[in-house]
Write a structure and sequence with these properties.
The protein is of the alpha/beta class and 399 residues long. The chain has helices at residues 27-43, 67-80, 93-103, 110-121, 125-139, 143-151, 172-199, 216-224, 266-271, 273-280, 296-309, 324-338, 353-357, 372-390; strands spanning 14-19, 47-53, 84-87, 106-108, 204-210, 241-247, 250-256, 284-290, 317-322, 361-363.
């Protein structure tokens, strides 16, 4: 009986990561960026076996890395039967072709990896159409060689979701036609979404924004008492989710939106117009930050830059420093080295440079429900101001 059984489980795909950091970039920063790339790789279900780093003045125009490093990567890939090589930057079509010729495995750059995660996460018809449009826009200039690249691994896998999964497209005209059809479909969705947003135009609208995996969905569930999907993986939320929230009889709409990330593909930003419209049309932004992350300041800058790209940088913002429980654990370890009995307190964050440089700022732990009452107080203060400006007759009498 045992001999008649067949294994149907698919083996986990394996990957190696490659980065060419600038000379002035520190080793710590390079490690952090590759940690993020490894997290992206894990999110799509692949296992990272090794990392390759080569410092160059600029990436090689032909193969991204130098000849010696490419030989080193090739030898490792063949010896360990690696399924794919993932690069922390975008590759040109010629670089993809040259690397495929040398390595004879799937070549994935950062944008394609992020697009694959979005394809995995998209649940609604709108989100799926947005991701598919971004994929086709990405693939069009790479069409000549990319389709054979995508068809090399039978049975799916990373970079196999969506376009190219069931047949090999060889005609640019067909791909352009699909892009046109998807644009038309999204225009219809945009009109529907616009009508929905217009129908609730009188109510104050608040959007959660932030770097990916900072806890926006957890906070959304906490404030709205809903069950938005939340997971400790990148881009757990792709579809915009809107919930009505009432604090002290003041109603407002709270939106959970897609997380931003370093080097977010431009094509993806262009395609996710309807989702990003939730941010553009909001009255107030809750910018959630993972304060326990060593590069949270860079994450703030990335989000601010993205908000500028989508014409939303001038909106009122409350900075919400989340995951203070993890931050306090790190801080306690630091203090114990000098003062064994020292215990950090969340109150000290209120007088820190983070609070001084970012006003208004609230420090919370959504997972532990720490300081949520203070967040509700600050949020109510800002929402009430907007609400009573919009409905002055409802304003409480002045004392």
């Amino acid at each position: 009986m045992r001999n008649q059984l067949h294994v149907t489980a698919k083996e986990q795909e394996t990957a190696v990561l490659v980065a060419v950091p600038a000379w002035r970039q520190t080793d710590e920063k390079t490690k952090e960026y590759l940690d993020e790339l490894a997290f992206l790789t894990e999110t799509v279900g692949a296992k990272t076996l090794k990392r390759f780093i080569q410092k160059l003045d600029k990436p090689d125009m032909r193969t991204y890395v130098g000849k010696g490093k490419l030989e080193e990567i090739t030898a490792y890939v063949k010896e360990h039967k690696v399924d794919m090589v993932i690069f922390d930057d975008d590759l040109s079509p010629s670089q993809v072709r040259n690397l495929e010729r040398e390595l004879e495995v799937k070549i994935i750059d950062r944008s394609l990896l992020i697009l694959d995660i979005f394809a995995l996460r998209a649940q609604t018809a709108t989100a799926r159409a947005q991701v598919e449009l971004a994929q086709y826009r990405y693939l069009l200039p790479r069409l000549t060689n990319m389709w054979t690249h995508l068809s090399r691994q039978k049975g799916g896998g990373v970079a196999m979701r969506g376009p190219g999964e069931t047949e090999i497209e060889t005609d640019r005209r067909i791909v352009r036609d699909k892009i046109t059809l998807l644009k038309e479909k999204l225009e219809k969705f945009d009109k529907q979404n616009y009508e929905q947003r217009k129908s609730r135009s009188g109510i104050v609208r608040v959007s959660l924004v932030g770097y990916t995996n900072v806890g926006k969905s957890t906070l959304m569930n906490l404030l709205s008492k809903s069950d938005v999907f939340a997971e400790n993986k990148l881009f757990a939320t792709v579809d915009a989710t809107v919930r009505k929230v009432v604090i002290d009889n003041i109603p407002f709409l709270l939106s959970d939106t897609v997380g931003f990330i370093r080097k977010l593909p431009t094509k993806l930003i262009e395609s996710f117009k309807s989702t990003l419209d939730e941010i553009r049309e909001s009255d107030l932004l809750l910018h959630v930050v993972d304060v326990s992350h060593p590069s949270f300041e860079e994450h703030i800058a990335v989000v601010n830059e993205t908000l500028k790209d989508i014409q939303s940088a001038e909106k009122p913002v409350i900075l919400v420093f989340n995951k203070t429980d993890l931050y306090m654990e790190q801080r306690e370890q630091e203090l114990r080295e000098e003062h064994p009995d020292a215990r950090p307190d969340i109150a000290e964050l209120g007088s820190s440079y983070m609070a001084r440089e970012h006003t208004p700022a609230v420090f919370i732990s959504a997972a532990n429900k720490t300081n949520i009452d203070e967040l509700r107080r600050v949020l109510l203060e800002h929402v009430s101001r907007i609400h009573f400006e919009r409905y002055p007759n409802n304003a409480p009498p002045q004392e």
